[in-house]
Amino acid sequence: MALTQAGYHSVQVSSGEQVRQDFLRLQPDLVLLDAVMPDGNGFECCQQLRTEFQTEIPILMVTVLDDQDSIDRAFAAGATDYITKPIHWAVLRQRVKRLLLSYQAAQQAQDIQQQLHLAHSWESLQQAMVQGLHQHLAIHSLLANHTELYQDCFQAQQIIVLNVDHTIRWQWPNAASEPPSALHHELGKLLASLAQSASIVPHAPAQLPASGPQSAAVTAALQDLATYLNLTAVIVWPLVWEGAVLGWLLLGSHAETIGSANTLARGRQFASLLAIALGITQ
């Protein structure tokens, strides 16, 4: 096939259902669809890909249908471009190349926009925290007004600030006034395992999945807590002020990306600010 000779890896399928299955499995960079398919039509398949997977991946319709109604229908279904048979292979290669380059450029622009948004959110949260520290705000007041920034900065679905006796000082999202005893039990088990570790290093978190030296007891306690909270990843920092542990910061997420280097760096700085807040208000 001309596209394979041009250096592209392609997979051929014969039905709309197989297109959907392979799309989910392979996550292709581009889809070529024929408007005429054995079990339906390419217009419907194209629309299903767009609505079912919410994808912006380019879809190129390749078909013998060249009437205006078919062309309009293809674009209405979500096709990115349209080429008619008989195929001029040099033209097809150029169309594919252009679509891929355009898609990659759009993805890069989106990534840059997300990075700028994240940087702005993190700067806003830091400024709010520092301002609150100057005002000697208590933890609850310090954290309560900035909840919209937590998801951006930490990709977290759960943030808990714990006292050293494993009681909850602050939690996001807000929980009931009296957390379940089972949660207290899991938190107590975790903090007990952390206390029994050889040493507590300021700014060094305990993580699930584990990514460094960490006792089996700590990892098991993190796993039990993650299971209870229906989370995939959990990170816990000690809140250390003048050599003493004043509490703990827990971040939990449904995605393991919470353990990325950038998120860990922001979490470490966040924990440092919380430790200062606890130290100056206790």
UniProtKB/TrEMBL annotation:
Keyword Cell inner membrane found: no
Superkingdom, taxonomy of origin: Bacteria
A cellular component annotation (GO) from this entry: cytosol
Phosphoprotein as UniProt keyword: yes
Gene Ontology MF annotations: phosphorelay response regulator activity; transcription cis-regulatory region binding
GO biological process, one term: regulation of DNA-templated transcription
Alphabetized UniProt keyword annotations: DNA-binding, Phosphoprotein, Transcription, Transcription regulation, Two-component regulatory system
Residue ranges constituting the Response regulatory domain according to the UniProt record: 1-100
Modification 4-aspartylphosphate occurs at: 34
Protein name per UniProt: Response regulator
Organism of this sequence: Leptolyngbya iicbica LK
